[in-house]
Model the fold of this input.
Amino acid sequence: MIYKRSSTLFAAAEKVIPGGVNSPVRAFKAVGGTPIFVKEAKGAYLYDEDGNTLIDYINSWGPMILGHAFEPVVNAVIEKAKKGTSFGMPTEIETEIAELAVSMVPNIDKIRFVNSGTEACMSAVRLARGYTGKDKIIKFAGCYHGHSDSFLIQAGSGAVTFGSPNSPGVTEGTAKDTLLANYNDLANVEALINANKNEIACIIIEPVAGNMGCIPPLDGFLQGLRSLCDANDILLIFDEVMTGFRLAKGGVQELYGVDADIVCFGKVIGGGLPVGAFAARNEIMNYLAPLGPVYQAGTLSGNPLAMAAGLAMLTTLNNDAEVFNRLAEKTEYLHKGLAKVLDSNNITHTINRVGSMISVHFDAEPVVDFKTAAKGNNETFKTFFHGMLNQGVYIAPSAFETWFITDALTYEDLDRTIEACNTVFK
Ligand code: KE4
Done:
């Protein structure tokens, strides 16, 4: 593969955009090399600026679940754009997509649209604090809820005391209200709750984690969190920015049968345009301005173009009874094929998979939390990443990310991917 034009474009970008990218993971820092500049995309394929065709397993980090330039979405945006792009006034389409989302997802009566997953999670935490009158939150090491200050926290000094900032610019004052727990470790969560009695507003979690690679909740973990929240007047926030409208119509609440109090969305809900959202039952959502005292706002929230893209996406998913099964079957096929060729080449690995989310970890130990995810051999991962890329297969440029399968992938694409993996390691 040649990347001459991507290199030229990257050099120009670095002069006027910090690190040459508008989001750090795109810079390939974890795997080295020059980021690929995309010219266009269609279905399961990316066409880069050097004329290379790549099978895409990132799909804009989740949104393109039905493939790039999906006709119903593209056409909806084109038609909507002809009628104006933004008004800062209510429009009917916001109600249409809100009604559809509420009909697809359990335990929500109302939904508020924002412009990113970060905004959704940040607003959900503020709502939980306002509703409960309590300040502290519990998040999990390795879970990512966007770049709001309260989430950029690493483990603090004591096991059950607050965290400390993991980025300059986040204050100790903010960090003291964030407690850090270990994923899949109920005893740890209970200890944190007991050490901070009546001070915790919410627990926010990726119910199926995707920012440590893909990590499923162990049996009983989510149910255990539900019970701990019920017993301690704590709201349970499912950050379904990745899993919402991807793992099932009703997301993880439907898949695992566990009720959240507030659910956050992003990615798929916007069909590739900037949309985030958070939703809950009436008694919680009615605390939001202008109805209630918790303030939250946004100039482009509910933007007509973004709503048109999201409505076309959710309508297609809602009307296709088989799409989530097809996605899961394709992902299982890929899992089995990759495992077979990695085993045949004696490559120590473990593969995690839930629905259409999958990740490959180069370590023998089961990956169940951030600690075990961090044990993966990153040199092997870099070899894997670049070896696949050189054969036209684009996977996540970090071992701590998840692959997102699109329904546009054919079984021929999957076979090509499996063969490419065999070629890397044989
Ligand atoms: P955004 O603000 O990037 O739209 O969403 C933040 C967010 C919230 N919650 C979860 C579970 C997420 O995965 C994300 C964003 N995901 C990353 C991928 N790991 C987006 C890629 C990026 O940062 O560029």
Remarks:
- Residues 23, 25, 61, 116-118, 121, 144-146, 206, 210-211, 239, 241-242, 266, 276, 401 surround KE4 (CB under 6 Å).
